[in-house]
Amino acid sequence: MASSSNNFHFHYDANNDSLNQYFQEQFNNQFQAVEEETPAERKPRTYIDRKREEGHERLWNDYFSDNPTYNAHQFRRRFRMNKPLFLRIVDRLSQEVPYFKPKRDATLRNGLSPLQQCTAAIRLLAYGAATDSVDEYIRLAECTARKCLEHFVVGIVDLFGTEYLRRPTPEDLERLLFYGEKQGFPGMVGSIDCMHWKWKNCPTAWKGMYLRGTVFNDIIYGRAPKVTYYVNGNEYNLAYYLTDEEEAETCYYPPEPAPAIGFTSLSSRVAQPLPANEPQLNQLKDQVTQLNDQMIHLKLLVVQLKAQVIQLKDQVIQLKDHVIKLK
Predict the structure, then answer these.
(1) Which of 5, 150, 173, 247 would give a disulfide with 243, using CB separation of 3.0 to 4.6 Å?
(2) What residue segments make up the domains of the chain, in order of their start?
(3) Long-range contact list for 223-229, CB < 8 A, 24+ apart?
(4) By its UniProt entry, which Pfam families does this protein fall under (predicted)?
């Protein structure tokens, strides 16, 4: 008897191929759509044991121990300030700014010391270097160095702004004029030589927004402190800030034509006074100065809000890491 398979007859139909091809295309499209919607696997964060304790010990022995490797002159050269001033800043920040307070991680291991954090911020400001340039010496990551810099700037403005970020008082002017004349620059109340940070891709709408502060507004519009001194036999009645030609052209001259400071030679580096018969113009410029002061105050508030946002993000990251460890 013939097997049952002999009773099966396959009838070829050309329409079946097109139908199969249609279903195959639909299946491939659905599979590709699901594959695209599937998020890529997140790469785990690379952990590097930088031995931060050794970084703190090296920094302490180099600059802050009883017998440091580098003397006070080298400290002043690399930190742009003397050691007592730097330690005063570190002490205030570590006591009043939460980010710089000594803390421990989940394993009870000491975190970065305030000396490491403040040194990283000062080095970035002093040399204008990249944020990862302090990793090998101070032993902190690039993102940590950036956070140190942001919190350092905000902390300095909050703690020392009212005392130092202001216009000079008559006592300050007397002291500054004394030291300026002692160095051979009569009538000089300051020296400007720190604008080496450049924003290459600054948006056009923001151009010139951060070039100068309220301290120089009066100087630019000819309202310099009133003093009396002589240069090459000529009498001058307005103080000036000493700078080079590049700084004066790129940083402290207003974009519109206005009375400004002249920096052509030592004998002419004084602010030219405005005509006495223009009180309305002076009043308008005073109003502009007040508006600029208010704008800068608002910018400082924005910086403080950004710092708070950064702190919240850090807390979120810590919570996520804690949840991952629990899983």
Answers:
(1) 247
(2) 52-164, 174-274
(3) 223/271, 223/274, 224/261, 224/270, 224/271, 225/168, 225/173, 225/189, 227/173, 227/177, 227/187, 229/177, 229/181, 229/186, 229/187
(4) Plant_tran (PF04827)
